[in-house]
Automatic annotation (TrEMBL):
One of its GO terms (biological process) is DNA-templated transcription. Keywords: DNA-binding, Transcription, Transcription regulation. Gene3D superfamilies: 3.40.190.290, Winged helix-like DNA-binding domain superfamily/Winged helix DNA-binding domain (1.10.10.10). The lineage of its organism: Bacteria, Pseudomonadati, Pseudomonadota, Gammaproteobacteria, Pseudomonadales. It holds the Pfam family LysR_substrate. It comes from Ectopseudomonas oleovorans (strain CECT 5344) (Pseudomonas pseudoalcaligenes). GO terms for molecular function: DNA-binding transcription factor activity; sequence-specific DNA binding. Belongs to the LysR transcriptional regulatory family. This is Putative HTH-type transcriptional regulator yhjC.
């Protein structure tokens, strides 16, 4: 146990950048801190702290190992006591841009409030990410998954709808068939996902006024209010 206490003293001195500050963090006297550091250096046979209290090269390596060892000790004690280990470390998640901005980011903020020791890296892209190559822990994907892909859990469903802005309907009327859109000015959105996977397709080559690869930007720019045309 003396070794673990010496490790804690060294980490406290390193964090506080002084013997007195380290003693205050641990609630012990400064002489006790001095003796602990001296005993630790004598046992290891090397200088861990220079006179300026900057870590030596050996001290830096030892401090990193101390942090890891004490963290593992804390987790082992929590498990032995019947508790659960607090989540900590880095979590990398990915999702489509629009879905991520609307639904994932707010929930990440809530998660971080509950688990402050976790660092979340969110990769929002409109492409299928290779989880192994890009170091992704959790991926939110919309649509059919390839055979033999990673284990997956369905968390919801998306129902496609056809929408138009009120201004568009006032100008061109309410179309009853996709063919009626052929001669209308429109914005074409290029997406990697195919809408023809689970529904009947209607080939259409409209007169395109603009092209975009970002559904999120076009949705925000087009109008703030949408009027549903159809559920299919």
């Amino acid at each position: 146990m003396a070794r673990f206490q010496e490790m804690r003293v060294l980490l406290a001195v390193t964090e506080a950048e002084s013997f007195a500050g380290g003693a205050k963090l641990l609630g012990i006297s400064p002489p006790s801190v001095t003796r602990a550091i001296a005993a630790l250096e004598a046992r290891l046979g090397t200088l861990l702290l220079a006179r300026s209290l900057r870590l030596t090269e050996a001290g830096q390596r030892y401090v990193e190992d101390c942090r890891r060892i004490l963290l593992e000790l804390e987790e082992a004690e929590e498990l032995a006591a019947g508790g659960s280990v607090r989540p900590r470390g880095r979590l990398t998640v990915t999702a489509p841009v629009m879905f991520g901005e609307l639904y994932l980011i707010p929930r990440i903020a809530q998660y971080l409030d509950t688990h402050p020791d976790v660092e979340v890296n969110a990769l929002l892209v409109d492409r299928v990410v290779n989880m192994m190559e890009e170091g992704i822990d959790v991926a939110v994907r919309i649509g059919s998954l390839p055979e033999g892909d990673h284990p997956a859990l369905q968390v919801g469903q998306i129902r496609p709808v056809v929408c138009a802005s009120p201004d568009f309907l006032d100008r061109v009327g309410r179309p009853r068939h996709p063919d009626e859109l052929r001669d209308k000015q429109n914005i074409h959105i290029a997406l990697p996902a195919q809408l023809t996977q689970r529904c009947r397709a209607q080939p259409l080559k409209p007169s395109t006024a603009s092209t975009s690869t970002s559904m999120a930007r076009i949705t925000v720019a087009a109008c703030a209010s949408w009027n549903r045309l159809s559920d299919t």
